[in-house]
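User: I'm preparing a small set of examples for a lab meeting where we compare how different chains pack in three dimensions. I only have the primary sequence for this one, and I'd like the structure in token form so I can line it up with the others. Please keep the answer compact; I'll paste it straight into my notes.
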Amino acid sequence: GRGCFLFGLLTIAEKDAARRAAVECAVRDVCGVRIFEVSVLPGRGPLGQRRRLQRAARQMQRAGVRRALFPEEFLQQFLFAKYGIVAARGEYLRRMTAGKIARKLLEQNGMDPAACHVALLGDHMSAELRGALMELALHVRYTMLCAGGGGGEACSVLRREYGVSVARNAGAALLKTAELVLTFGDAAPCGAPDCLWLPCGSVHEAEGYRNAAPVVRYSAAPEVEAAMEGIQAQNALLSLLLEMGAVRVNELEVAEIAQNA
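Assistant: Understood. Below is the structure token output for the 261-residue chain.
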């Protein structure tokens, strides 16, 4: 029935002599998550294309779509926003895999985790921050945590079960020794001047710091990769699948970190 799809997918089709309809709709199943796919043939000129995209947006709206996956470099998302449809993004995936990204960063930069000082900063102790803490504290030399006074329970688990001590509510001088800094929520980075910064919250820019992992590529189980084939917005899609419980964090690996797409 109508109004039952949360997620949409826009694809721009190749010109096809056999195809009549300018705008076609289909339902795609990706790992058990139903996605409403609208395929659009390129229109004649900018105006023709715009009309077709507006038709696609109306079809998605009728189907109840709220978030959609768009092709890379697609610049007409504003046409969809008028129908209450926003682009799906990969932030949730990044936050949930922050520990894995951090370990890959150390590896790609030739840094030995066992000699590394890492700081995790957040305005409160979130599930994502806890996940990153549990993943990193077992592998690095020294872990600092500032989470608005939170994190006591996670730190006692680490101490009790793994014999790992975490410097909670670390002061500014101690944070200045961090070679890798992860930020969550509204926290801003602070660490050694040339530290690696992994932003996982709302702060994406900070003076004197550079995002060390602007582009993250993942690998998943072969059946997940196969189901995602042909969809350009891979991280946004993985993020949706993770959110819906269709894939789990431990089924994903960080394949590579790049400086640009």
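A couple of notes for your slides: The CA atoms of residues 218 and 254 lie 5 Å apart. The chain is about 30% helix and 25% strand.

User: Perfect, thanks.
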